[in-house]
Amino acid sequence: MKAIRIHEHGGPEVLSYEDVPVPEPGPGEALVKIDASGVNFIDIYFRTGLYPAKPPFTNGQEGAGTVAAVGQGVRDVRPGDRVALLQPHCSYAEYAIAGAKRLVKLPNGVTTKVAAASMLQGGTAHYLTRSTFELGESHTALVHACAGGTGLLIVQIAKKFGARVIGTCSTEEKAAKAREAGADEVILYTQQDFSSECRRLTDGEGVDVVYDSVGKSTWTGSLDSLKPRGMMVTFGNASGAVPPFAPLELTKRGSLFVTRPSMMAYIATDEEFSWRTSDILNWIESGDLNVTVGGEFPLSDAAEAQSRLAGRKTMGKLLLIP
Ligand code: NDP
């Protein structure tokens, strides 16, 4: 089968499209024939070495398709089932192995492409808005990169639970997309000082929570946008990693909270995995959540897809098709 393998860390050129043997499922595992694999920023971090992963490995953390075979003791899924998977270093390939408990069966109304596009970013948007800071009607949230893959999903879930959403993004086209997803206000943070705009839009008060996937370039402005005792959720590094900071910066702004969450800690148990992924798939099926696929690339063009994502040229989600 074909797969995208990484033999050394580096730029997009280290993504090697090559032949590898089809893996065999061990006890408790299933082999999935992949219809589509999602492209995520985390794939780039594993490629460059910002996040630890020892080469050689297959790039990609999420995908969807059909169960082709199951290992010993697997009873939750059977060959022929349509499933999505969320697991490190497996999905940029024609076939992937996943623990059977970490597969989710797809409702009839959800295509494998949409499922592949929604596992990682949907699960993230779910844990950020339902667990890290549980949004409700009394809250105002600032969502950076609001037209990105994760951003568009956070906006929609925040609106579903009644929060007011202020989004930021870089272009008018992206702003229109975020408004369509339900954002109440959108600030072009490439043209305006987003923290003063946030203050203006909240009558000087500030927001309850910031969901910040941009990192380095938005860090200080995000802290400045919060109301006293507000929650800073810094969950990504699209512009670079946030540098070390002094806790007194939090005191100065009114006893702020900061958390730096990761998805794996929020799907640590099979129950939590199942809760989040089934909520997302059910909301998609019922029409509450709309997943934007912003582009499809052949698996062999993984380097181009990652370059577009890193180059700020995308809205919603990119998919690789084996
Ligand atoms: P997006 O689809 O959001 O793409 C990134 C967006 O970030 C760009 O489109 C761009 O939007 C914005 N951006 C701002 N500055 C830059 C910059 N200097 N370079 C590139 N992009 C920039 O990507 P993802 O949703 O896949 O991921 C976003 C971040 O969230 C990543 O760091 C990712 O690792 C993290 N993440 C973390 C998770 C967790 O559990 N902790 C889970 C999922 C994602 P614009 O043009 O509008 O500024």
How does this structure look, described?
- By secondary structure, this protein is α/β, with parallel strands linked by helices.
- The chain has two domains: 2-120 and 264-321, Medium-chain alcohol dehydrogenases, catalytic domain (Quinone Oxidoreductase, Chain A, domain 1, Alpha-Beta Complex); 136-260, NAD(P)-binding Rossmann-like Domain (Rossmann fold), CATH 3.40.50.720.
- Helix content is 31%, strand content 27%.
- It contains ten helices and 16 strands.
- The strands form three sheets. Strands 3, 5, 6, 7, 8, 15 and 16 form a seven-stranded mixed β-sheet that branches.
- Strand 9, helix 3 and strand 10 form a beta-alpha-beta unit.
- Helix 2 crosses helix 3, helix 2 (112-132) crosses helix 9 (270-286) and helix 5 runs parallel beside helix 6 (219-225).
- The protein is globular.
- The model has no long low-confidence stretch (mean pLDDT 97).
- Residues 40-42, 120-121, 124, 145, 147-151, 169-170, 174, 213-214, 217, 235-239, 261-263, 309-310, 312, 314 line the site of NADPH dihydro-nicotinamide-adenine-dinucleotide phosphate.
Structure in a nutshell:
31% of the residues lie in helices and 27% in strands. It has 10 helices and 16 strands.
